[in-house]
């Protein structure tokens, strides 16, 4: 299972994707449509129109990686992307839940607390 640490930014592509897209097409969409350099350690998630298939694209420092998943039942619960935004952002802690089909928009999160100051 792909489990990135908190240092990765995870971006949701807002449109439906033809799942035949390969490495070059995915990198092009990241750069030209989202305006994000795909070779700087981010993870990009793409979904098909029916929301039952996904592709995950990222560059690991030595090459591009593409993972795909098809849900046998149900659909991925893709978080809504706000109007006017080019892409959505998902916390790295929610990636596994999203890929399991969990509706992460319904999660109740604890309030953030300030980091203690270190002397």
Describe the structure.
Helix content is about 15%, strand content about 25%. The mean pLDDT is about 85. By secondary structure, it is an alpha+beta fold. It has one domain. Strands 4-3-2-1-5 form a five-stranded mixed beta sheet, with helices on one face. A hairpin with a 4-residue loop joins strand 3 and strand 4 (about 65-70). The protein has two helices and five strands, in the order E-H-E-E-E-E-H. The longest helix has 11 residues, at about 25-35. It is globular.
Extended strand count: 5
SSE arrangement, N to C: EHEEEEH
Helix content: 10-25%
Beta fraction:
15-25%
Whole-number total of structural domains:
1
Q: Could you say which structural class the secondary elements and strand pairing correspond to?
A: alpha+beta
- Count of separate DSSP helical elements: 2
How many angstroms separate the termini? 38 Å
**Average pLDDT across residues?**
84
Physical arrangement of strands within the biggest beta sheet: 4-3-2-1-5
* Low-pLDDT residue spans: none
Note the overall shape: globular
Major β-sheet annotation: 5 strands, mixed
Radius of gyration: 15 Å
Outline:
The chain is α+β, with helices and mostly antiparallel strands and 119 residues long. The protein is 13% helix and 24% strand. The protein is globular and about 45 Å long.
């Amino acid at each position: 299972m792909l489990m990135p640490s908190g240092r990765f930014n995870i971006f949701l592509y807002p449109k439906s994707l033809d799942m035949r897209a390969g490495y070059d097409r995915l990198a092009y969409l990241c750069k030209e449509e989202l305006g994000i350099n795909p070779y700087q350690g981010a993870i990009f998630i793409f979904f098909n129109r029916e929301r039952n298939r996904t592709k995950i694209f990222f560059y690991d420092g030595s090459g591009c990686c593409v993972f795909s998943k098809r849900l046998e039942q149900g659909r991925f619960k893709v978080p809504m992307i706000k109007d006017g935004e080019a892409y959505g952002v998902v916390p790295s802690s929610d990636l596994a839940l999203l890929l399991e089909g969990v509706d992460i928009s319904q999660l109740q999160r604890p309030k953030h607390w300030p980091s203690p100051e270190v002397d």
